[in-house]
Amino acid sequence: METNSPKDGFEEVLSLFRKVIRTLILLTMVLLALPILYVNRDRIEKVFQKKSTPVLADITDNTKQADDESRFWKAPDINTITDAGLKKQVEYGKELIAHTSKYLGPNGSVAKISNGLNCQNCHLDAGTRIFGNNYGSVASTYPKFRARSGQEEDIYKRVNDCFERSLNGKPLKVESEEMQAIKSYIEFLGTNVKKGEKAEGSGLKELAFLDRAADPVKGKSVYEAKCQSCHQADGQGQLLPDGSEYTFPPLWGKHSYNDAAGLYRMSNFAKYVKYNMPLGATHNSPQLTDEEAWDVAAYVNSQERPHKNVPKDWPDIAKKPIDHPFGPYADSFSEEQHKYGPFNPIKEFYSKK
Ligand code: HEC
Ligand code: HEC
């Protein structure tokens, strides 16, 4: 058996003492660091957020971008909903916006009432993307009067407008589980926007008119260079192999939006595409020039697509938007000019009235 000399014992105590001191120092440092981290948590969070923005955006001025981004509306987090029933309904609404076709498309599991597009194809990130046609201002501004119908419209009517036009389909029954879920989701998205106010960055971003008419021939070259790799040469997009929804949605033809839809107006199409297409473009890193956006709009919207009869639209023709492509008008400009531009002379005519 080994016996410890007093010297060994002393050394053991000393080394234990050192360990205790070291642990204490470490602990104090951690305790000191915590409040510092806490106080700077916003800055730290920003550093990580910045890292996850797209590569193209990183090339542009980062500081300016971080400032700009914080101005914009941000969708609330579904996980903050405490009522379990409501949370489930809102989640179903989001699912229906993101994957409309699976439930309500030509092979829909709930009903077959629309063309295979998803709401999300045009309302990006389930209607939450800044200037990606998001729903930030819907709850705060509806019901509202709309000149297209000449009536006060509620959210149900507006949702069904897109079903009947953008999805070239049939309306959902107001009392259906699906309509109630979509409405709950859209209302939830607007819970952080004051009634009557518009969320910063909602809808589509403004785009200046060209001084000339938009040109479908030039637009065809833009399409071939920057769109057709995904949307295909025939504009028919690409379905998933199981046919449940599109990987790349069609831009014209019988599966696309009809001629009464919002995107059939040149300005809506050009604004949407300028700040969102080709896929990956954003409002602060657009990839098309203004001319390319207008010309490709002219090309796509001069292709064949379903026609919808809407004799009740625009009961007051003087309220038609400048780029509404169907007469009669309260001015003497041609249908052709109302469709392709130049729009500035029409704008001047109405501002003088
Ligand atoms: C093909 C593109 C497209 C699809 C698909 C589409 N929408 Fe839209 N939607 C638009 C455009 C463009 C507008 C804005 C039109 C305008 O202001 O003239 C719009 C506007 C809306 C608005 C009003 C937004 C506001 O701030 O006033 C709601 C709500 C809406 N859509 C819901 C839906 C729902 C729900 C679906 C799916 C059933 C859907 N949309 C599918 C293009 C589309
Ligand atoms: C890399 C693939 C890709 C390219 C390139 C691309 N898109 Fe898209 N586009 C998509 C996808 C994917 C969606 C649907 C987005 C979603 O559901 O999140 C879409 C949606 C659209 C929509 C709305 C939905 C519809 O069917 O009407 C339009 C309009 C559109 N793109 C136009 C264009 C135009 C014009 C160009 C060229 C300037 C272009 N896209 C280039 C992938 C692409």
Report on the architecture of this protein.
Helix 12 (216-226) crosses helix 15. This protein has a two-stranded antiparallel ribbon with strand order 1-2. The N and C termini lie far apart (111 Å). It is elongated, with a radius of gyration of 28 Å. A hairpin with a 6-residue loop joins strand 3 (238-239) and strand 4 (246-248). 47% of the residues lie in helices and 3% in strands. The protein has 2 domains: 78-189, Cytochrome c-like domain (Cytochrome Bc1 Complex, Chain D, domain 2); 216-352, Cytochrome c-like domain (Cytochrome Bc1 Complex, Chain D, domain 2, Orthogonal Bundle), CATH 1.10.760. It contains 17 helices and 4 strands. The protein is mainly alpha-helical and 353 residues long. The longest helix has 34 residues, at 6-39. One heme C is lined by residues 100, 117, 119, 121-123, 133, 135, 137-138, 158-159, 162-163, 166-167, 182, 186, 203, 257, 261-263, 268.
Q: Per DSSP, what share of the residues sits in E-state strands of 2 or more residues? A: under 5%
C-alpha geometry: elongated
Could you name the CATH class of the largest domain? Mainly Alpha
Tally of contiguous helical segments = 17
The CATH architecture category of the largest domain equals Orthogonal Bundle
Write the H/E string, N to C.
HHHHHHHHHEEHHHHEEHHHH
Which small compounds were modeled alongside the protein? heme C
Helix content: 40-55%
Number of strands: 4
Strand order of the largest sheet: 1-2
Number of domains: 2
* Rounded radius of gyration (Å): 28 Å
CATH H-level superfamily of the largest domain: Cytochrome c-like domain
Name the structural class: mainly alpha
Main β sheet profile? 2 strands, antiparallel
Low-confidence stretches: 50-63
Q: What's the overall average pLDDT, rounded?
A: 91
Distance between the termini: 111 Å
Can you tell me the CATH topology of the largest domain?
A: Cytochrome Bc1 Complex, Chain D, domain 2
